Amino acid sequence: MTALVLENVEVIYDKVFLAIKGVSLEIGEGEMVALLGSNGAGNRRR
């Protein structure tokens, strides 16, 4: 049984930095999922 569906997710920080683009996931009941990557802490550009 599907517990969560995410389709074409995008995450943009400060209206400038595209962190995630086009991610789609289908997570089943009882499954565990981790999305790993840089969190951007300290990488602030101005």
What does the model show?
By secondary structure, this protein is mainly β. The chain has no helices and two strands. Strands 1-2 form a two-stranded antiparallel sheet. A hairpin with a 3-residue loop joins β1 and β2. The chain is elongated and about 45 Å long. It starts with a strand and ends in an 18-residue tail after the last strand.
Task: Provide tags for this entry.
0% helix; elongated; two-stranded antiparallel sheet; mainly beta; 46 residues; 52% strand
Ordered list of secondary-structure elements with their pairings:
Blueprint: E1 2-13, E2 17-28
Question: What's the short version?
Answer:
Helices cover 0% and strands 52% of the residues. The protein has no helices and 2 strands.
Query: What are the segments in which pLDDT stays under 50 over at least 5 consecutive residues?
Result: none
Radius of gyration: 14 Å
Strand content: over 45%
Provide mean pLDDT, rounded.
86
From the spread of the alpha carbons, the general shape counts as: elongated
Q: What is the helical fraction, as a range of percent?
A: under 10%
Distance between the termini: 45 Å
Estimated structural class = mainly beta
Total number of beta strands: 2
Compressed to H and E, one letter per element, the order equals EE
